[in-house]
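hey can u check if this looks right to u? its 162 residues, i copy pasted from the old doc so theres a chance i mangled smth
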Amino acid sequence: MAEAKTPEAPPPDQPAGAQPGGQLEMFRGYNFNLLIDGINAGHFLFCSELQVKVAALRYREAGAGPVVRRLPGPVSHADVTLRCGFTQSPELWAWFLASMSGLPQRKNVSILMLDVDGVTERLRWNLNECWPSEWKVHPLDALGQEIAIASLTMVYESLTRG
């Protein structure tokens, strides 16, 4: 006589985030927005890579022979370059002029990664205490049909993920 099998209970709900064997959702590199001091500055076309580096300091322990050990050292942040269509708006130029005068205006910049709908915020990086260190207008070409592009390079003190 065969025993009746009882149906197995469904697995419990898994918490959000990475799961072993699960597929991670990738973000689209063109769905981003920028906030400068909390004000939407979403007209940017390009944002260079974010980079944080922890220097590896080398040392040899006494009596350890030829073994060289490494310790974490100073943290440095790479500059970030923003590109946007050149407009009559004087805001970015005025921000840069303050740096040229030796009195940079430090602002907080947030880079938002958006969902596929282009509206919903999925991830945020906060660049704290930013100030512009370089401004340039890209080459102008009378034979081309591209829009005029300006670049603003910023330095910042710290990076957080929100």
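Helices lie at 91-100.
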